[in-house]
Write a structure and sequence with these properties.
By secondary structure, the protein is of the alpha+beta class. It contains 10 helices and 17 strands. Helix 3 packs parallel to helix 4 and helix 6 crosses helix 7. It is elongated and about 75 Å long. The relative contact order is 0.11.
Length: 377
Amino acid sequence: MLTQEGSAIRQRRIRKYLSANHIDAAVISDYRDIHYLTGLLLPKNFPALMLLETEGGSWLAATTDEGEALVNDRIVYEWQQLYTMNPDPMRCLQRVVEARLKNAPSVKRIGWQAESLPRILGETVANALHPDEWPAIDDVLAGMQMRKNPDEVELLRQAIQASLAAYTAVQKVIAPGVNELTVLAAGKKAAIEKAGEPIEHSGDYRVGELGGTARNHIIEKGQMYIIDVQSEYHGYWSDLCRTFVVGGEPTELQRSVYEHIASILADVPNLVKPGGSGTQLWRAIDERLREHPHLAAKGLIHHAGHGVGSRVHEMPDLNRDREGIFEVGNVFSCEPGAYSDELRGGVRLENTFLITESGVENLSVYPTNPIPTSSQR
């Protein structure tokens, strides 16, 4: 779980920004950002609202007052009647927010999340606090979240371990004649068992293609099976990729492309440093891919990776067309890949890295081998 100590650090950071920009308070409406600032992970299918005063206290309105949350006051709205979910949870939340703000002093400037604050809650806040200005703070929070605290990194490590357990499991079932859904089921079961609780696990489980969800489809000998998976653990995500040859007998071309891409991925810690550019890294990977004769014409046809955290895709971006700058505290994935009919699909390999003061750590140490364990017996 996120710690109260980590949440206190994050609240101090956002309050420092609010104070410097003469913002009196902020309303936080995205459950992921409430988690980030309070340490409490709320159900994603129910609305909630947090109000954080720049020079004062804070309160949180949600479906429960259970669990630790770094706020001064907790307000609960009724989400069910006789164990049947209320059909209007947003209006239930609005009523308790309206009551909490009754007779509250006016503010001049209030920060808000333009991407997530529902209009009904925005109007309730406006009618109670009468702010003159509504500066959006979405980009501020996103910028903060690029630099992970230790408690965040620990959750990311746990999410990664769930995905790695999935790779160990899927290799045991990958074989000609197996259904893609069977492979997905094996991966999901292993990820949940590793986490020790129900978690989300999904991703690209489609054989012979760049990506796509699992189908009711039989895999065939000689196809390249790209399995690019995401697992969520306590609100934080992993994003990893491995590629296997169905039947365990790669062609000379498949093996040489695989080894070429694996060598590029292994070199990523030497290519990244604070202040470096994600676009430059994309170009370096594109150039390295083109050194292989089979890849010389195409190079890298997609992004090279991205930040990972409470969202599967965060900044910094490793993209030809959108810049990202590396900082200490970034957790990012890197995923060189190449695709062609001759490869019978393609090869993509992805690890997740943490930028520290002393270098770049691979958080997802795991073998890169195109031959699944089911074919090594």
